[in-house]
Design goal:
By secondary structure, this protein is α+β, with helices and mostly antiparallel strands. It has one domain. The protein contains two helices and three strands; from the N terminus they run αβββα. The termini are far apart.
């Protein structure tokens, strides 16, 4: 993993789709980011927050499922 600092860091995820680890698309607009870079659902951390990832971080099986949302 490459660490990115400065102005590029805040612009990296603009317009990028986020997925649950099983390949389902996260359709909601609210998410929060932890200091370690982990993206999660919800505006703030809660018991129901779920981890979100980018397409490249998905398993091959999950990527196949994610491609069904590209229509």
């Amino acid at each position: 993993m490459v660490a990115v600092y400065g102005p590029l860091r805040s612009k990296m995820a603009k317009g990028v789709k986020h997925y649950f680890k099983d390949g389902r698309l996260h359709a909601g607009s609210s998410m929060h980011k932890h200091p370690d870079g982990t993206l999660m659902t919800g505006k703030k951390m809660s018991k129901t927050s779920k981890t979100l990832v980018h397409y490249g971080q998905l398993s091959k099986k999950a990527q196949k499922k994610a491609r069904t949302y590209w229509g």
